[in-house]
Amino acid sequence: MRNVILFNVTAFIYFLSSIIFICHIIYNKNDKLYLAAKIFTICGFIIHTTGIIFRIIESGHAPFANLYESLIYFSWIIILFYIYAQFKYQLKSLGVFVVPLSFLAILYAKTFSSDIQPLVPILQSVWLEIHVAVIFIGYGGFVVSYGCALLYLLKIENKWAFFSAALNICIITTLIFYFLLKIKFNQGIISMFIFIGVFVFVCYLLYKNEKKLKERLPPIDVVDKVNYNAAVYGFIFLTGGIIAGAVWADSAWGSYWSWDPKETWSLITWFIYAAYLHARKTSGWSGIKAAYISVYGFWAVVFTYFGVNFLLPGLHSYN
Question: How far is Cα 260 from Cα 288, in angstroms, rounded to an integer?
Answer without folding.
Answer: 34
